[in-house]
Design a protein that fits this description.
This protein has ten helices and nine strands. It is of the alpha/beta class. The chain starts with 5 loop residues before the first helix and ends in a 14-residue tail after the last strand.
Length: 262
Amino acid sequence: MGQPSLSTVESRKNSGRKLILFANTDWYLYNFRRSLALALQQQGHELLLISPPGPYGEKLRALGLRWEPVPMDRRSLNPLREARLLAWLVSLFRRERPALVHGFTIKCAVYGSLAARLAGVPARVNAVAGMGYVFTSNDTKARLLRPLVRALMHAALDGRNARLILQNPDDVALFERAGFVDAAHIRLIPGSGVDCSRFAAIERVRDPSQPLRVLLAARLLWDKGLAEFVEAAQQLKAQSRAIEFLLAGDPDPGNPAAVPEA
C-alpha cells in the first residue's frame, strides 16, 4: 500500500497522531511554538519537540511536553558532520514513526524534510519566516552556498505530501520564481501570530516632557537592520532631536550575521 496523502493525515487530526516539531533552538520552540505544541497536545496528539540542546529544553519538559536534543551545529559547514546529523534524524524518525514532521527555519526545514522522506514519514510541513543567511547575505560564503542550498530545498520541500508555509508575498514570489516548490503546495499566512494572553497591550500616555523613545526589539543581526537603525539615530542626534534610541535583544552566536555585543 502507498503512503497516505497529506489531506488524509489532516483529516485524522483528532485521532491522536504523533507529530514532531523541529527548530534550530530550544529558545525558539519555547517562545514561538509553545502555544502550538500545547494546543496540539490538548487535541490528543502525541508531540515530540527536537532542537539543539539549551536551557529551554527543561522548560518545555516542565510544561509536560516531550523534548529531545539534536546533535546539530547551526553554523556547521562540515560535510561529514552534516551527513551524521542527517543520518541521526533518519534514525530518530524511523524509531518514532511520526505521521508528520513540522520544521521551522531553513536548515531545519531542509534537513528535517530530507530525513523525513528517507525515513518514510507520510507528511511534511515547513514554516520559513525569511530566507536566512545564505540568501540575505552577500558575502562570499553565502553566495557559494546558494546553488547547493537551492538544490537541497527543491528536494526537501516539494512533493505531494508536503506543504510550505510562508509569511510574506515576496517570499512566495521568490519560491515560485526559483521553482523550489510547486505553487499549489505553498500556503501564505499573515505572520506567526501573537498570544494575546501573554502579550497584552497597555494603554499609556506619553509624558511630553520626556524624550521620545524609539525601540528596536530584535536579535542583534545585521540582517535585522541594526546598521540602518544606528545611522538613523546618528542623523537625528546631529539635528539635536530629543530622541532616545534603544536596542532590546541578544546576539545570536549561531548566525553568521550576528553583531558582536561589544
